[in-house]
Automatic annotation (TrEMBL), chains A, B:
InterPro entries: HTH_LacI, LacI/GalR-like_sensor, Lambda_DNA-bd_dom_sf, Peripla_BP_I. PANTHER family: HTH-TYPE TRANSCRIPTIONAL REGULATOR GALS (PTHR30146:SF109), LACI-RELATED TRANSCRIPTIONAL REPRESSOR (PTHR30146). This is LacI family DNA-binding transcriptional regulator. It comes from Occultella gossypii. Keywords: DNA-binding, Transcription, Transcription regulation. It comes from the Bacteria.
Length: 342, 342
DNA sequence: TTGTAGGCGTTATCAC
DNA sequence: GTGATAACGCCTACAA
């Protein structure tokens, strides 16, 4: 063993005067092995002295596991998505897994990146953050090589699914506006095809219907970005009359909504009330501190990780999980108030 | 080979009627091998038909490389840091590396997480996002096992270093306020011990000195969070007089600064001008659209990745890189204006 | 032009 | 109690 090279198990064994087999079992605390206390201590001492570190690659070649989980995310420019990432990453780390991070768009767009990521033996499983684009092709490539969990998708998919209670969050937001006296409430949606946005829209429609306001349903398609929120407002401003309340599907888009109203000289909540879904640090610093429904996004990521790890380790997991604990929670700030009209 | 199992190189070779050696060389496009065109096509055809995917673990056990780079980050709750992450991740992916993501605090606080991450054979190198805490212990553990690059640190470290031109950014910010007529300009610093903040502070001091304002140096220690910015303002408000201009070390902290002024009923920029360093999507949506100096953070991450990859692949890299291209750039919004006082 | 064999570092099986 | 040995899948001298 030369100076720079790390010692192998064989080096340790030789140095301790035992066979590699014994050294391996002692260092892995194999409960079925019976060795003299003295031998055990000698081996452990030598390993420590030589700075022995097990070779994870050799280990996973022998066994079948790698101790690594892939996180395929998108939209990391939004803090909302980063929350999910952070929750998943932390849960994996707690369970002893390292995490490989990839960007869904990059992976879908570059075949060689995808195969590097899914190379055999690299990953024990993948958490796929469900967006609204290339998802299906990606999902197929992934599931054909390792177990996967889908975050934020509808259930009834070929793989287990985890999501927060988007409908309940939207209901809570809509109820809040109704309680304040609003009757003309629009929903500013996410991008077309987003299941997350669709579930929120369903909650919004539900709530209007339950209050006999089903005829007032008013959905404006926008997107997840601040720019999309701004565009949506410009669209509203072209109408003869404005809704008095807005449920915005996402906090980043809501930022753009608020700025657009500020630039148009409309008072929030004086002329329009705005509430959004997702809470984040920046909401209280916007042009008007933004009222929101808090959703447990870190828990979402962590639950996906736990579910995947259960699958990997052979504990049979539930299939589709809708997270209800902690429940969506109203975070009151200054962007909603009683309606002036009617 | 059973139904579920993926085919191995040997399976492909057998099926194609050749030896594993030939199959390996053909599939890896070994330029020194000379095979009949027909044989080559047969091998490639069989590999494709069987869905052969090389086993990355076996490959890296044989060779020494794993094709994986570790990203040790901190503060992913701030979009500023996420920008660096995204730049590094994308650059690694472009170069054919997968990325392992870990959180610096978690790694420093949990020994078993650290050894799982640094397990032999797992990583070809590590990008360490330099913070202000556990960095040194972490750095030692990392560098003793793989090549590393430090992002955002001073140079003169035992490993190569990459950073943006923090001093120039602070100079630009300070100059801007001076040009607007401000003479009492405070610097709202990051946390104690942050080298990034120190470099910005140096730029600020420089600029004051160059304008014969050296006596007006006024540094308030805060931190990177919005809360820290708010606290710093509260501290300022206890003074008999306020500075007329503020250079805030970081855009997240600056959010808290603006909110604190709003809550205190002070007009920005009427009574105080505020400029910050780092641009991000949320700045234009704050209570006052925030003027900032844009710094190329994605480029920072990407440069760190490129530098590390050069090291790994044996191209001798420069040691310490200060990124000057693109240069820091002033992004004018509404939070700075001529001073009313003096 | 193609094949054989050895070994990367581990761990599981079986024998002593 | 402990040790030899084989195998995981791949790559690459060297041989034919």
């Amino acid at each position: 063993m030369s100076a720079g090279a790390r010692p192998t198990l064989r080096d340790v064994a030789t140095q301790a005067g035992v066979s590699p087999a014994i050294a391996s079992r002692v260092l892995n605390a194999d409960p079925t092995v019976r060795v003299r206390e003295e031998t055990r201590e000698r081996i452990q001492g030598v390993a420590k002295d030589m700075g022995y570190v097990p070779h994870s690659v050799a280990r996973s070649l022998r066994g079948a596991r790698t101790g690594a989980i892939g996180l395929v995310m998108h939209g990391l420019d939004s803090p909302i998505n980063v929350d999910v990432l952070a929750g998943a990453q932390a849960a994996c780390a707690r369970a002893g897994y390292v995490t490989l991070l990839a960007d869904a768009e990059q992976l879908a767009g570059d075949h060689s990146q995808l195969s590097a990521f899914l190379a055999r033996g690299r990953l024990d499983g993948v958490i796929l953050h469900s967006g609204y684009g290339e998802e299906d092709r990606l999902l197929e490539a992934i599931t054909s090589s390792v177990p996967a969990v889908l975050v934020n998708s509808e259930d009834g998919r070929p793989v287990p699914t985890v999501r927060v209670d988007d409908a309940a969050a939207a209901r809570l937001a809509t109820e809040h506006l109704i309680e304040l006296g609003h009757r003309e409430i629009a929903y500013i949606a996410g991008p077309e095809g987003s299941q997350t946005s669709d579930r929120r829209e369903a909650g919004y429609r539900d709530t209007l219907a339950r209050h006999d306001l089903g005829g007032a349903v008013d959905v404006v398609h926008a997107g997840w970005s601040a720019g999309a929120g701004t565009t949506a407002v410009h669209e509203l401003l072209r109408r003869p009359t404005l809704p008095t309340g807005l449920v915005v599907a996402n906090a980043v888009a809501a930022s753009g909504v608020l700025s657009a109203f500020r630039d148009a000289g409309l008072a929030v909540p004086g002329q329009v009330s705005v509430i959004t879904i997702h809470d984040s640090w920046f909401l209280q610093h916007l042009s008007v501190a933004l009222t929101a429904v808090r959703l447990p996004l870190q828990v979402l990521g962590a639950t996906a990780a736990d579910l995947l790890i259960d699958t990997i380790e052979g504990r049979s997991p539930v299939r589709d999980v809708a997270i209800t604990e902690p429940a969506p929670e109203l975070v009151l700030r200054r962007s909603t108030g009683p309606t002036s009209r009617r």
